[in-house]
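Support case: T4K complex. Customer-provided input:
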Amino acid sequence: MNSPERFAEPLYVSKPALPPLADYVALLDEVWASSTLTNLGPLHQRLEVAVGERIGRGATSLWSSGTAALVGAIQALRFQGSVVVTPFTFPATVHALAALGIEPVFADVDPETLTLDPASVATRIRADTTGVAATHVYGALCDTDGLAAIASDANLRVLYDGAHSFSRPGALFPDRDSVLGDITIFSFHATKLFHTAEGGAATTEDPELDRRLRLARNFGITAEDRVEGVGLNGKMSELHAAMGLSVLSLLDVELEQRRVLAAVYLEGLTDLPGLSVVAGAGENLPYFVVRIDPTEFGSTRDELHATLRAMNVMSRRYFFPLCADLDPYRHLPSARDLPVARRAADEVLALPFHTGMSPVDAARVASFVRWHRSGGRP
Ligand code: T4K
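Agent response - structure generated as follows:
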């Protein structure tokens, strides 16, 4: 079987949306004029309002990264002892707990959404458990009502890692009381749908938690001569805020273009036994992820990944390895019995999905997948 023509240049899984340089430079002019580079300056304040409006509920603080927001949130929530956490996430979610001396206790995930399964959480709560940390995976929302019910029964606080979830207003945040948990964090890393190069945010509906988050972000300082708590430096600089302000205006166009790409992928990948689309077809479009059942598909996810790589398609195995299988965590008793998450980590594959690619590119990637499915190898 003849090999189709590979991409001449690598087609990466993500590519940051970049504003016209002039738009960014216009904002930099303001930075130069004020000579305020950081410490919650005017552009930071503008972006904080704009991001908060887009989220549409709670109070939002901007951070230097999603990971910094996670650390600040864990401090604000006063987690200690152990926290029940999803293993199916980027390592940052689990590392933030471990770095603060908290034992991550893994629970299994739901087979459809790949988000933390409330029933499994209930079996992992211990006497020293103080919270739950759950990730909205590829933009699919956790069962926030189910987790809220368990948290309320066990007197736990809930932290959502919404790193993938900043999107169209209302798309992620339906009118569901439990949706934000106690705090939800976001990542604005360059690889995200909306980015500030590096950055993040934290949103809460609890004014006291918002106050603690802001203390944690800025050394605990409340006045020139007053430090009220232990805090680190999680502030977003003016240069990053300028990037965010100029990228924010592109977000709706980016979403429309991704919707077109998702439709092309869905059409090209339909009716392929053993392949299912995990996310990318709904309202939130952070990644386009397929899942490979090796028995029905006739090859493993890793074999498909190798074929795509050979064709210069830089697919990524988000999230593999499972966090519970990483060196710092594999010895934990809770790392063992996670059949649903472990299977998912072996089967998921993120395909290139960004506006640096055309619908024709997406159709070509889909055709490579079909070619591989029918036995083609480079
Ligand atoms: N929680 C969750 C659930 C997360 O997914 C993440 C981050 C976090 C928390 C932590 O948030 P941050 O502290 O990062 O704000 C990437 C990102 O670095 C990471 O932010 C992201 N999740 C994770 C899913 O993906 P890598 O190591 O896969 O990135 P990298 O450098 O291989 O980039 C992927 C592709 O993107 C490259 O092949 C090329 C392209 N790319 C990348 C960068 C950085 C560009 O075209 N331009 C760029 O500037 O982790």
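The first strand starts at residue 11 and ends at 12.

Case will auto-close in a few days if no follow-up is received.
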